[in-house]
Give the backbone structure.
Amino acid sequence: EVQLLESGGGLVQPGGSLRLSCAASGFTFSSYGMSWVRQAPGKGLEWVSAISAGGVTTYYADSVKGRFTISRDNSKNTLYLQMNSLRAGDTAVYYCAKVPFLQSMAAPFDYWGQGALVIVSS
Amino acid sequence: DIQMTQSPSSLSASVGDRVTITCRASQDISNYLAWYQQKPGKVPKLLIYAASTLQSGVPSRFSGSGSGTDFALTISSLQPEDVATYYCQKYNTAPRTFGQGTKVEIK
């Protein structure tokens, strides 16, 4: 059974940093691209970042480019999102999500984690 | 960047009604279009990908159509368990933009 479990969320002051982790199990993690998607309270879904299966290729939304860094450790089956220079507008539930097709990034998301809440407030 | 525009933003229909939600891309995205269902307090669920391919386990009352810039999600007979917000998403290139969502309620 595919499982994605996010951790690392919490309350952080504006300008602060936080690192989210997503522990994956139930599939060959190193063979699938992964993404982060966020959802502000009461709002819609916003794609944040994507990384290829091998970790070489990464993409970012303009809203987080230069502040967030996506990475993965395939030996630990874990996806990360390093978030720096956080703003109130970054407050959201952050989901990790996997694509369904081997070695592909042009793909939808077939499994999602339960989400990690990040609150940026003083 | 390509924008994804859904309509309507919300709708109310009776059980058994045929419901259609549309999604328009600002540029041609071929068939790189997915639909998701998010029930209140739950994680999004993939319903359809490649514009019209039903994800495994999704009821056959859901269907998708379209290509290029105009797409639609149809629920052939609305059920109480279909109350949710539905999102389209383009996934051919980054950014993998979502539509703003369509909230479906029962009348």
User: Anything to note?
Assistant: The radius of gyration of chain A is 13 Å.
